[in-house]
Design goal:
The protein is an alpha/beta fold and 1018 residues long. Helix content is 28%, strand content 21%. The strands form 13 sheets. An 8-stranded mixed beta sheet has the order 24-30-26-27-25-28-23-29. A hairpin with a 5-residue loop joins strand 20 and strand 21. Helix 8 runs parallel beside helix 19 and helix 15 packs across helix 17. The longest helix has 17 residues. The chain is globular and about 95 Å long. InterPro entries: 4Fe4S_Fe-S-bd, Asp_de-COase-like_dom_sf, TAT_signal_bac_arc, TAT_var_transloc_signal_dom. This is TAT-variant-translocated molybdopterin oxidoreductase. Pfam families: Fer4_7 (PF12838).
Length: 1018
C-alpha cells in the first residue's frame, strides 16, 4: 500500500541527513550578500544592485512597482515590404518530415514560424515518437559555431564546382589504378540513398560502402543474418506480450531505437491485464526503473543466467555457471512457458552469440512478440567491416576515404590507428553537417544540410516509408550527400527529382506523391515473409558464449544516456542541461557504483549545505586504456559492476561550456558494451556535480505518490477506509473524520461558463524519458543557465521529472510492537537501497484553484484565470519570491539573471542563429521575475481563436500543451473538463485520479493517476 512506503530522492534524504533538513527549510540555497547587492547607501547608484534588490532597499511601494513595470526593453519590429504568399505572420505552419541522423530515427511534425523551425513533435499518424534528443534537434539546426558553412580544401574555402572537378578527377585516377576507395557512413535508413550508393559503386567498382555506428548493435544484426538470412534488427510487439524478460536490454531507452509506446500499450490496468516485465541488469536503467521486478546482477552473470534460462526452458544441459539469481531464472522459465507465444526474451548484450541464444528461446516459445519479418532498418553498422577498414587504412591498403556524418577519431576505441591510416590516404573527403575531429583531419571538408533543410526518404521498418522535406531554406552553402554522389557518379539528375521518381516507381503504387509528402509517410500494404533455412547450431553457440565470458571481480557496462545518446548533439545546451532520469545529474557523465563497492573502495558523494553534490575521482583501466572519471554512488547498481555513459568528453569545435564529461569510447573495445577485467583506483581531486536530486525538496512529505498492485486495483475498493489504494485525505471536522475535500476555507471559482483546463498524468504510463521537458523548453523559451547555476539549485526548468526511490517501511505502531527504535527502522530502510523500487512523477505548476501563491503576492502578479490556469504577469512581478516560498510543490523558478544577450550565458539566447529557435508567442523574460509553467496558455488561446475564426466550437480533444503533445506513451492528457467528451473529463473522475498533497486543499488542475504495478499476483 502507498501508505506503507517511504519515498526518497537520495540516500542522504533516506538517512535523514541534516543537510537535507536544512535544504527543506531554505527554498533558495544561494543568497547574495547584502554588501554585494546594496553597496554603500550613500553611493547606491554605483552599486551592483539588481532591480529586485533595489526594491528591497526602497520598500515595495506602488510607485516602485510601477517603475519596475516600465523597465522592459524596447524592440522595434520590421514589417514585410512584400509578404510571402505562404507565410502569414503570427500563424504557425506545420510540416511532416523524418529525422535520421545516424543514431535517432523518427517520423515527426515540425512547427515553423515566419520560415523558422521552432519545435518538433511526433507524427502520430505515422506512429511516430520523439525522445529528448529528437525534441532538441531543432536547436542543433541553429548551431552556428559547430556547423560547416563552406566547402574547404586544406582549410581554405573552395567552390563546389572546383570540388566536383578535383575530386571527380581523383576518383577517376584511383579507379584507373584499381586502388580501393571506401564510403564510410552512419546508418542512413534511406532506400533511395541506398540505390544512389549502389550506383556510385557501379560507376566506381573499386569503391566499397561500410556502415559505422558509434554505439553498435552489430551483434543483433549479425545474429539476424545468421539465423534468418537478413541483416537487420528484429522487431518486438511488446503491446501483445504477457511476459517480458530482458537481460540488460534498455528497450525504453535506446535499445533498437526504443519500444516505449508498444510497452505501455500493453500495460493498461483498466483493461484488467498488464504485461509482467522482469529486468536482469547491472546498471539502473530507464527500463529497469519501470520494470515490475528488477533483478540486480553483474554483466557476466547476465550471460550465465541467459544460458540457464535456455536450459530451463528447453530441458538442455549446456555448460554454464550457477548464479545468485538462478531461482528467479527458473521462475521466469515457468512464466515464459506458461505465456507461450505471448512471452518474449530480449538481451542488450552486443554479442552475436548472446543474441542468437535469445532468438532461440523465442523460437522455442513460438513467440509472436518477436518479429523477424517487419524488421527494423536502423543501427546497420558492421563492427567487423569497420575493424577491417581501420586495419587496411593503417596498412596502406586504402587509397581514398569518403566519410559522411561520422566521427571515428572521437568514437573509435582505436582512434589513433584510424588517424594514422587517414594520413596515408591519397584522398580524404568528409561530408558532414557539423565540424568534428575527423572532418578537421580530412583534406576536403564538405558541408551537408541539417535534416530540417533536406529532402529524403526513410525506411525505419518494413511497413512505414517516410519522407523528408526541407522546413527552412539552407542556412549555409551546403549540398546534400545524395546530390554529391549523383554528380560524382556522372548523373546530372537533381536529388529531388530522383527521389520523386524512386518513390513513384518503387513505393507509392500509384498513390499521390503530394499526399504522401503532406502526410510525411506512406504505409505499405504487405510485407514479404522471410523464408530462410538456418544453419545455426545453437549448442555450439551456447558453448562459444560460455567460453568467451570471462567473469572478473569488477566489470564495466558502457551505455548511452537518455539525454545525450552517442554524443552527436553534444553541443546542444538543452540536452546538456537535461537531468538524467535516474541520477538527476546534468552536464556530466560519471562512473556509477554500488553502495557496497563505494564503501569498500572509499568513494563518497558528500552533499554541501547548498544542495550541491561532490564526488571522488577514479582511474578506470580496461585493456590497457584508462580514463579518470568522477564517481556517482547509485542505488540499484550491481556489486562488482560499474556503469559509464558514452557520448561525453567531446572537445573539438564545442563551446567551452559544453566540453564536459569524459570520453568513454576509448574503453569501448570491439564495440562491446560489457568489458571485463576492470581495474579501479581512487585518485586525488574532488569533482563538482550539477545534480538536482536533493534540490526542490518536498519537506519530508512522503505521500506524494500512490502505487497499487494490479491485484489490489482489480479487487480492492480504491477509497476503502482501511485497505484502499487511493484513499482521500481526511480531516477532523466537528469531532468527526471527514474527507478533506468536503471542507473549504475559500469560495469556489465559477467554472460553469467557458473552458476549464485540466492536465492528467498517468504514473503507470510515464517512463520518465523526459521528452516533455525539452518540448517545454522549446515551446516556452525556457533559458539554459549552465552547470554552475544548476549546481546551486537555479535551474529554470518549468517542468521536471522527479525520480523517487521507495522502500516498504513499518508504521510507528508496528515498529513499537517489534521493539525497533527509529534509528533501527531507518537502518533497515538503508539496506533496501541496494535495489529500490523507482517511480517517476512529472511535476510542474499545479495550477491550483486555491493557489497559495496568489494569496501572498503583494503586487497581484500571479492570479487565477477564468479557464483554470494560474497566470503570471511578468511586468507586474517585482521578485519578492513570496509565491515560491508559499508553493508546496516547489515549481516556481526565480529568474536570477538576464539569460538572453548576456556574455555570462553563452547559449542559444545569446547569438543571432540561436535566437531563431525562440517562440514569438512567448515573451523572453527579464531578470528578477518568477517563472513557471503556464499550461501553454498561448497554445490554448490559439486553439480557441482558430475555432472562432472558423465559426465553430472547439473540437473534442483539440486542446494541447507542449508536454502532452510530446508524450510518446500518452501519459499526459490535456483538455477541457467542461467538455464531457474530452478524454481528460473522464480521467478526472477515474478511480485512479488523485491530487498531490490533496490534504492541503490547494485543489490543483493537474490530476495524477495512481501507478499500478503488476506484481504477478492478479
Amino acid at each position: 500500500m502507498a501508505s506503507n512506503k517511504k519515498y526518497w530522492k537520495s540516500v542522504e534524504e533516506l538517512k535523514g541527513s541534516s543537510v537535507v533538513e536544512t535544504l527543506s527549510k531554505n527554498e533558495f540555497v544561494g543568497e547574495i550578500s547584502t554588501d554585494q547587492f546594496l553597496g554603500d547607501k550613500e553611493t547606491l547608484e554605483n552599486s551592483s544592485t539588481s532591480r529586485r534588490d533595489f526594491l528591497k532597499y526602497v520598500g515595495f511601494t506602488t510607485a516602485a512597482a510601477s517603475l519596475a513595470a516600465c523597465e522592459g526593453p524596447v524592440r522595434k519590429s520590421i514589417p514585410y515590404v512584400v509578404k510571402p504568399n505562404d507565410v502569414t505572420p503570427g500563424v504557425a505552419d506545420w510540416y511532416a518530415t523524418s529525422m535520421a541522423d545516424g543514431y535517432d530515427f523518427a517520423n515527426v511534425l515540425v512547427k515553423t514560424r515566419e520560415g523558422r523551425p521552432i519545435q518538433i513533435m511526433p507524427n502520430k499518424d505515422a506512429n511516430g515518437t520523439t525522445s529528448a534528443r529528437v525534441q532538441a534537434a531543432v536547436l542543433s539546426l541553429y548551431d552556428e559555431q559547430l556547423r560547416l558553412k563552406e566547402p574547404t580544401k586544406g582549410g581554405e574555402v573552395i567552390s563546389w564546382s572546383d570540388v566536383d572537378k578535383e575530386i571527380g578527377a581523383k576518383l577517376n585516377a584511383l579507379k584507373a589504378a584499381s586502388k580501393s576507395v571506401v564510403l564510410l557512413t552512419g546508418t542512413m535508413a534511406s532506400p533511395s540513398t541506398d540505390k544512389i550508393i549502389s550506383e556510385f559503386i557501379a560507376t566506381n567498382p573499386n569503391a566499397k560502402h561500410v556502415v559505422y555506428d558509434a554505439i553498435s548493435e552489430s551483434g543483433a544484426a549479425d545474429a539476424m543474418l545468421a539465423m534468418y538470412g537478413e541483416r537487420a534488427l528484429p522487431n518486438y510487439h511488446l503491446d501483445k506480450a504477457k511476459t517480458i524478460v530482458s537481460f540488460g536490454a534498455d528497450f525504453l531507452g535506446d535499445f533498437h531505437g526504443g519500444f516505449e509506446k508498444q510497452f505501455i500499450a500493453g500495460r493498461k490496468p483498466e483493461t484488467g491485464h498488464m504485461s509482467y516485465h522482469v529486468q536482469f541488469e547491472s546498471n539502473m536503467s530507464l527500463t529497469g526503473a519501470n520494470s515490475d521486478k528488477r533483478v540486480v546482477v553483474k554483466p557476466s552473470d547476465q550471460v550465465f543466467a541467459l544460458i540457464n534460462l535456455y536450459n530451463a526452458i528447453t530441458g538442455s544441459n549446456v555448460p554454464s555457471k550457477e548464479t545468485s539469481v538462478d531461482a528467479t531464472v527458473k521462475a521466469m522459465a515457468t512464466e515464459l512457458k506458461k505465456s507461450g507465444s505471448k512471452g518474449v526474451v530480449l538481451t542488450g548484450l552486443n554479442d552475436k552469440n548472446a543474441q542468437l541464444v535469445a532468438f532461440a528461446i523465442n523460437e522455442v516459445l513460438n513467440s509472436e512478440i518477436f518479429d523477424t519479418n517487419n524488421t527494423l532498418n536502423i543501427r546497420q553498422g558492421n563492427d567487423a567491416e569497420v575493424a577491417q577498414l581501420v586495419s587496411d587504412m593503417k596498412a596502406g591498403k586504402i587509397a581514398g576515404l569518403i566519410s559522411y556524418n561520422v566521427d571515428p577519431i572521437y568514437s573509435l576505441s582505436n582512434s589513433s590507428d584510424f588517424s594514422e591510416g587517414l594520413k596515408k590516404l591519397e584522398l580524404s573527403v568528409a561530408l558532414s553537417t557539423e565540424n568534428n575531429e575527423t572532418v578537421n583531419s580530412s583534406n576536403f571538408a564538405l558541408p551537408t544540410p541539417h535534416f530540417l533543410e533536406s529532402w529524403g526518404d526513410t525506411q525505419f521498418n518494413e511497413v512505414t516509408y517516410g519522407l523528408m522535406q526541407p522546413t527552412i531554406q539552407p542556412l549555409f552553402n551546403t549540398r546534400q550527400v545524395q546530390d554529391v554522389l549523383l554528380k560524382w557518379s556522372g548523373n546530372a539528375t537533381k536529388y529531388y527529382d530522383y527521389l520523386k521518381a524512386y518513390a513513384a516507381d518503387n513505393v507509392l503504387n500509384g498513390s499521390s506523391w503530394n499526399t504522401a509528402l503532406h502526410n510525411g509517410f506512406y504505409n505499405k500494404e504487405t510485407i514479404d515473409t522471410i523464408s530462410f533455412e538456418s544453419t545455426v547450431e545453437i549448442n555450439k553457440v551456447l558453448k562459444a558464449l560460455f567460453n568467451a565470458t570471462k567473469a572478473s571481480k569488477f566489470e564495466l557496462n558502457l551505455y548511452a544516456k537518455t539525454g545525450l545518446g552517442d554524443g552527436k548533439q553534444a553541443n546542444n545546451p538543452w540536452l546538456q542541461e537535461f537531468p538524467d532520469p535516474i541520477t538527476r545529474a546534468s552536464w556530466d557523465n560519471y562512473l556509477t557504483m554500488s553502495i557496497t563497492d563505494a564503501k569498500e573502495l572509499g568513494f563518497a558523494n558528500p552533499v554541501k549545505d547548498n544542495g550541491a553534490i561532490d564526488g571522488d575521482y577514479a582511474k578506470v583501466s580496461v585493456n590497457g586504456k584508462e580514463v579518470i572519471v568522477p564517481v556517482m554512488v547509485q542505488p540499484g547498481q550491481a556489486n562488482g559492476s560499474f556503469g559509464l555513459a558514452l557520448g561525453f568528453g567531446k572537445i573539438f569545435g564545442l563551446k567551452e561550456e559544453m566540453q564536459v564529461g569524459v570520453n568513454a569510447y576509448s574503453l569501448y573495445a570491439n564495440g562491446n558494451n560489457i568489458q571485463y577485467n576492470v581495474a579501479i583506483e581512487k585518485v586525488s581531486g574532488t569533482h563538482q556535480f550539477a545534480c538536482t536530486q536533493v534540490q526542490k525538496t518536498i519537506a519530508g512529505r512522503h505521500d506524494i505518490l500512490k502505487v497499487a498492485s494490479l491485484k489490489d486495483y482489480l479487487n480492492v475498493a480504491p477509497k476503502d477506509h482501511k485497505n484502499g489504494w487511493n484513499k482521500p485525505a481526511y480531516v477532523s471536522y466537528d469531532h468527526q473524520e471527514v474527507e478533506a475535500n468536503t471542507i473549504d476555507l475559500w469560495d469556489e471559482h465559477n467554472r460553469e461558463v467557458g473552458h476549464h483546463f485540466n492536465l492528467s498524468i498517468d504514473l503507470t504510463s510515464c517512463t520518465g524519458c523526459g521528452a516533455c521537458v525539452v518540448a517545454c523548453h522549446a515551446e516556452n523559451n525556457v533559458p539554459v543557465v549552465g552547470k554552475k547555476e544548476v549546481r546551486v539549485g537555479r535551474d529554470m526548468h518549468w517542468l521536471r521529472i522527479d525520480r523517487y526511490y521507495s522502500s516498504e517501511v513499518e508504521t510507528r505502531e508496528e515498529a513499537k510492537e517489534l521493539g525497533l527504535s527509529r534509528g533501527e527502522m531507518y537502518e533497515a530502510l538503508e539496506t533496501e537501497a541496494v535495489n529500490p523500487e523507482v517511480t517517476f512523477q512529472p511535476m510542474m505548476c499545479q495550477h491550483c484553484n486555491h493557489a497559495p501563491c496568489e494569496t501572498v503576492c503583494p503586487v497581484a502578479a500571479t492570479s487565477h484565470g477564468r479557464q483554470g490556469q494560474n497566470q503570471m504577469a511578468y511586468n507586474r512581478c517585482v521578485g519578492t519570491r513570496y509565491c515560491a516560498n508559499n508553493c508546496p510543490y516547489r515549481v516556481r523558478r526565480f529568474n536570477w539573471f538576464n539569460y538572453a544577450d548576456n556574455n555570462e550565458f553563452d547559449f542559444n539566447m545569446n547569438n543571432d542563429y540561436g535566437k531563431m529557435v525562440l517562440n514569438p508567442d512567448v515573451v523572453v523574460r527579464s531578470r528578477g521575475v518568477m517563472e513557471k509553467c503556464s499550461m501553454c496558455i498561448q497554445m490554448t488561446q490559439a486553439t480557441i481563436l482558430k475555432a472562432k475564426k472558423e465559426g465553430r466550437a472547439v473540437n473534442t480533444d483539440e486542446f494541447e500543451t507542449a508536454c502532452s503533445s510530446a508524450c510518446t506513451t500518452g501519459a499526459m492528457v490535456f483538455g477541457d473538463v467542461n467538455n464531457e467528451k474530452d478524454q481528460v473529463a473522464a480521467l478526472a473522475e477515474d478511480k485512479r485520479a488523485y491530487n498531490v498533497l490533496d490534504y492541503l486543499q490547494t485543489k490543483p488542475n493537474v490530476i495524477y493517476q495512481v501507478k499500478v504495478k503488476n506484481t504477478n499476483e492478479a
